[in-house]
Amino acid sequence: MATNSVESAINKVKAKGTILRVLGWILAVFNGFIALVGSAASGIKEALDVVLILFFLAIVTIGVWLIIKGNKMIKLIKTYYDYSTRLAADPEKSIDLLASVMGITVATATKNINDMIAAGFFPNCYLDGQHNKLVIPTTVQPQASTVSTPVSNATTQTVKYSTVQCKGCGATNKIISGTVGECEFCGSQISE
Known about the structure:
Layout: H1 2-42, H2 47-89, H3 95-102, H4 106-119, E1 126-128, E2 133-135, E3 149-150, E4 156-157, E5 161-165, E6 172-176, E7 181-182, E8 189-190
Antiparallel strand pairs: 1-2, 3-4, 5-6, 7-8
């Protein structure tokens, strides 16, 4: 269920970003061409010529803004995959450590994660500002024991773990070898 919501959120942001970029390019190129041809053809002799050229240039500016906004949305998806992989490897989910590893400021990492939470990339998660970490609520599930378990012939058996990459969101997770687990970021089923 959570996997579908993360995939749905990613697809929604990807579609919106692509639409903004295409619309931005159409506005920028078409209106830029009209402003260029209009200024060359009219010779800018009257005040109306100046107003029309400024109008078309304003639309070009809106087009450029849409392109930039669309690019930021697409970049947010790429950043999500990188963040989720790095946060999966950090048991504390520390924003300070994430920022340090990524070579960015804590404020930038915090803003990016807030944008990702708002977009639905981290469902049911929130930022703990006091401890500066991402909090991922866990569901109560029967857990396998991680301690040595005595068996009848007085030998001990140790649980082995494997690192697995989630096919749903790309995050790296740690699961008990030979079992099926759940991605701690998107909730999809993962196994070796």
